[in-house]
Amino acid sequence: MSRNAKINTLLLLLVAALAVLPLALGLGEGKEEPFAGADAQAETAITELRPDYEPWFSPLYEPPSGEIESALFALQAAIGAGVLAYYFGLRRGRRQGESKAAAAEPEATTGASAAPTES
User: Fold this and answer.
1) What's the DSSP call for residue 116?
2) Which string of DSSP letters, residue by residue, matches 30-80?
3) pTM score, two decimals?
4) What is the pLDDT of residues 60-107, one digit of tens each?
5) Phi, psi (rounded to 5 degrees) for 43
6) What gap in Å lies between CA 21 and CA 17, rounded to an integer?
7) Contact in structure between 33 and 40 (CB atoms under 8 Å)
8) What is the pLDDT, as a whole number, of residue 84?
9) How far is CA 64 from CA 55, 67, 68, in A?
10) φ, ψ for residue 107 (rounded to 5)?
11) Which of 2, 27, 72, 97 would be a feasible disulfide site paired with 22, CB 3.0-4.6 Å?
């Protein structure tokens, strides 16, 4: 197994552990929403500390359910990952093209000078 394959396998196992460990250890049991996002936790803390607090702004679009909100968040993450993958793929392709062009350059010059000339 190559070094990169070992690193990729280790990273994959680490990500899987981060996803499974909170569920396996029972973190968040006894809470109404055990894995609520930071926004929901902040809103709860603010209403507990200052019940008369009025937000400055309201959302432009309020999804009708939590599932739709999660789907929109996943779509946003997928679009961002696609843009990043495109950028890094384009960079790698350009780098490979430059190295192939640089490798082909000496061949072209040696091939032309080695050819016999007719007078």
Assistant:
1) P
2) TSSSTT--HHHHHHHHHHHH-TT---S---S---SSHHHHHHHHHHHHHHH
3) 0.50
4) 988 888 889 889 999 999 999 999 999 999 999 999 999 888 888 776
5) -60, -40
6) 6
7) yes
8) 97
9) 20, 9, 7
10) -60, -40
11) 27
